[in-house]
Amino acid sequence: MNKSPLILQIVCLLITGSSFPALAQTNSSPASTNLIILPEPIPDPLERINRGLWAVNEAAMKGVIKPTAKVYRTLMPPTFRIGISNVGRNLQYPRRALSNILQERWTGARDESYRFLCNSVLGMGGFLDVASEFRIPVSEADFGQTFGKWGWDPSFYLMLPLMGPSSDRDAVGGAVDSASNPIAYFSPYNYIPTGIVYNNLTDTVDGYVRRTDSEADAYSLLRYVYALQRNERPVDWTVEGEPHAPTMETMRFALFGVGDRHFPERGAKRIIRAPATGRDLPYNLWLQPKAAPMVYLLPGIGAHRLNSGALAVAELLYGHGYSVVTVSSAFNFEFIERALGADLPGYSPSDVQDLHKVLTQIDRELVRDYPARLGSRALTGYSLGAFHTLLLAAHAGNSPSLLQFDRFLSIDSPVRLMHGIGQLDSLYNAALEWPADERTARIDQLFSKVAALASGPLNSESELRLSSIESRFLIGLAFRLNLRDVLFTTQSRKNQGVLKQPLDKWKREPVYREIMNYSFTDYLHLFVEPYYKTRGIDLANQETLRTASDLRSFESAYRNMDKVRVIANEDDFLLAPEDVQWLSATFGSRARLFPRGGHLGNLAEAPVQEAILNALEGLGETTIGSNIVAATPKPRRAPVQSPRGYSARGSKMGF
Fold it and tell me: pTM for the whole thing?
């Protein structure tokens, strides 16, 4: 199966900014219909068949490749696996050389010839990549790419059995690629390429499965990624006007990932019965070998428990002596389908109540299974997870039967959700600043730029070279794609009759195109408000809405709540200047404000990670029955940071 990575979902992040239409408006149709038309990556007329084959491929990866890969990695050391991969690449020299020649890339053909000779002679038939040590450049090329150079544009998307994403052009090109390999004509050596593909998959399958499991629709995302990767058009790097600093800062969140790629697998996936639905809900646990404080982590809007950001925060905390539990966001498809008591998320008191019940159930089962291992409890959240953390802190005393926390830590929380909603819509609508007759072409060119940026390592010195409109639209698009998943998930669960297109999980493109016309404001007015009105909650009432969505409603409680800590950035586009002032005045020394970073864009920086660890200091007692036992975290060491050059080929980064 093609292991094509799930690069950023167009550099996904979360919650952002400007003003929005008055809440009194009650449109009966989306306000932005057909104003922003996204370019079609590759037409998918065979979507039903392709999704069926995708399901077969997923079953093979999860049911065959992943379990056997663990055994294979145990038997075969990393040096051997890398060597086999090197041999496989060396055997593909004819494909690369011929394709470079047919594209008139003479330098590429020369470099690949040098590499082949060097590795074949000095590298034991290619087992060792000596050419890279000699800094001989790599020039990847294939026949699908060659056909594209000759003018053959893909006509339709294909999902190939056990091979992964392709197109009519690249499927033919792949057949020619295979035919160009000399060993394909000599039995039994013609089985070698299959063995090499398996060898390569064994080192990537865990991450692949984790990324696809954390996506509401990995098929759709992979289709976009595939189209971007196969885009050979030249990129216009011209930047018009001054960049938008807050959104550019926010994109640095892409640097925040696990330092140890094996960290996710070192945790345990566990399951509880969700109190609100009675359905099984997974969560992930990293438990210290001895008694230690326990941190429950709530990620941002739409983020999965195994999202890159959630894993990075978990690794930071676990590396400093805390046990950690991650659960998916109340706006994530997994939580919506399995644990949400309402038909759809959006009314924060209800969402937080469901989250609190889930965390209580998790804690009770962990106490049962590990009675001497759980210390003081802390609740930590970032972005929307931070807002839910603060809202839960304000309401925790009203539910004494539920889990009570010893510390609350909020990282980059919005203060007013309605302001955040306006920001999200405004960012997406940044594309409207382009002339209407150029808009789709400009977006297409922007996607080409994103593909070029994502093709190599992204580090702190990377120059993104995005204009203000481009960076704002990209982040707005990331949120709009998240809203698309929320709407498809909730309406498939219980259709409110607002959407006109059928909700067919095997053919989603028509309804996806319709959903993309709905803004977050539309979601509030056309879906959330009508639903809760049937339950006796009038969100059109400003006081009801304020209590549900504005942290300032609980100012007096927060002033007297010593166990709450806040970390925020002054240039976060989720926060208006008065919100920053309110955080500082309300939480005082319990708030740590950084002058820059946008929304979560500085989480990879040492001062912010140090602030996170400082905010959790003092959680050093373990309660066992009526006895108190010391449970001190590991000695402080340098914060865990992502390595320079952390690949931009990550999964969607939800906030």
Answer: 0.88
